[in-house]
Amino acid sequence: MARTVLTAEMVEQAVYGGAILGGGGGGWIAQGLEKGRAALAKGTVELISIDELNDDDEAVCVSLVGAPAAKDQYVDDNQLLMTVELLQKNYPGTIKAIMTNENGAATTVNGWLQAALTGLPVIDAPCNGRAHPTGAMGALNLSEQQDYVSYQAAAGGFGSRAISGFVSGTLDYVGNVIRRMSVEAGGMVGVARNPVSIAYVKAHGAVGGTSKAMEIGKAFLAEKEGSSKIEAVTAALHGRVVKVGHVSGFELKTEGGFDVGRLEVDGIELTFWNEFMTLEENGERKGTFPDLIMTFDADTGQPVVSAEVKNGQKLAVICVPQSELLLSSTMKNERLLRTIEPVIQKTIV
To answer: Where is the S-Me-THD N-terminal domain (predicted)?
Structure first.
C-alpha cells in the first residue's frame, strides 16, 4: 500500500480490528462505525504509507481522551476539526499528515474526519498498535526527550460543559491538563497533539498498524459463527483462547477520567484500567499488559470492551503475547508501565 482511498468496507474492517486490538479499551464499536462513516460522508480520506513522506515532514497525533463509560461525554465534528486548527495556529511548524494515537474501536479511525475536512492524509502508523490508558503511552516516548515541549489542543463537551483550548508545556503537565479538561467536558475531549517528524515516527510508532487492524477486522468479518470469529482472530494474531465462561465479581468505577475495575470468568481474574491489564488463573499470571488481553461475547463473537462487561455474561477471553503485536517504543518504557501498578494493585514490570 502506498496511497489508499478508504471505503465503507474498510471502515468496518478498521473498527472491528481496532476493537480487538483495543484490548478492552479504545472506545465503542458503534461510535467507531459512526465516526468512520461520517468521515467518508464529509470527503475523501486517504491512508498513506509512511514512506510517502519525507523524514523531516511532520505529522500530528489526534486522539480522544477520557473515560469510555462516562455518561455525559460529547465531542462533535466541529470540535474535532477545531483541535487541528488550534494546534496548527499555535505550532511554529507545518503539519503534513495526521496519525492516530492507538488502535481501538473508536480510535483506529481517529483523524479520518479531520483528514476529510482538511485534505491532510492519514499515515499508516498509529502511535501505538494497541490501546493504552495514559496519554504518555501514546506519546512516542517523547517523555524521554530532555526539555521537550508538548503542544496540544483539545475540545469537547455540550452546552455549558463545552470546552476548548491550546496548552503547551512539559508532557506530563499538559497531559494532566488535557485529562482534567475531559472531566470538565463530561468525560471526553478530542485532542490534536505533539507534532513529530516522520523519522521519529518510524523509530517510535507502530508502522503498518492501521492496515494491521483492517487485516484483523477482515478476518473477523469473514466468519459467520461466533466461535469461528474468535478462532479466526486468535489464529491471525497468534494468540490463544484462555477461557470461555461466565462473568462474576465485575466491578467498575470511573475516577480521574479512567474506568478501573476487575472481573472473574470461571476462575480467571482480569483487571483493567480502561484496557485489560492482567490475566491470572489460580494466582498464576497468564498475561500482562502490553500483552493483548481481550474479551468476546462467547455466543456472537462480538468484541466486548471492559466498560460493557456485565455479571452473568458468557465471555471468551483471549491473550496474545506482546511479541506478536505492532507496538510503540513506549511499551518497553518501564517508568510508564509502572504507573499502572498503584491503580490496579498488581505488578506489571
So the answer is: 11-144
Contact 209, 20 (CB under 8 A): no
Q: C-alpha grid cell for residue 210?
A: 492501521
Tell me the C-alpha to C-alpha distance, in Å, between residue 249 and each of 77, 252, 295, 315: 38, 10, 15, 14
Q: Is residue 149 part of a domain?
A: yes
136 vs 101, 163, 176, 262, CA distance in Å? Answer: 10, 22, 10, 23
CB 2 within 8 A of CB 124: no
- 218-260 residue pLDDT tens: 999 999 999 999 999 999 999 999 999 999 999 999 887 789 9
Read off φ and ψ for residue 20, nearest 5 degrees: -70, -45
Beta strands in the chain (DSSP E): 3-5, 46-48, 58-66, 95-100, 122-123, 150-156, 163-169, 188-197, 240-255, 258-265, 268-273, 275-281, 284-288, 292-297, 303-304, 314-320
Give the span between the Cα atoms of 240 and 128, in whole angstroms.
22
Residue 219 belongs to a domain: no
| Torsion region of 29: left, alpha or beta (phi above 0 gives left; psi -120 to 50 gives alpha) | alpha
pTM assigned to the model: 0.91
DSSP 304-321: E-GGG--TT-EEEEEEE-
Strand partners, 77: none
* pLDDT on residue 6: 98
Q: What letters, b where the CB count within 10 A reaches 16 and e where it falls short, cover 35-49?
A: bbbbbbebeebbbbb
Both 189 and 264 in a single domain? no
Kindly state whether residues 195 and 234 are assigned to the same domain: no
As for how many domains the chain has, the answer is: 2
- Asked if 263 and 250 count as a contact pair (C-beta separation under 8 A), the reply is yes
Helix (H, G, I), strand (E, B) or coil at 140: coil
Give the residue among 42, 35, 45, 46 at the shortest CA–CA distance from 12.
35
Using one digit for the tens of pLDDT, what is the confidence trace for 16-46?
999 999 999 998 999 999 999 999 999 999 9
Which range marks the domain in which residue 188 is found? 3-209
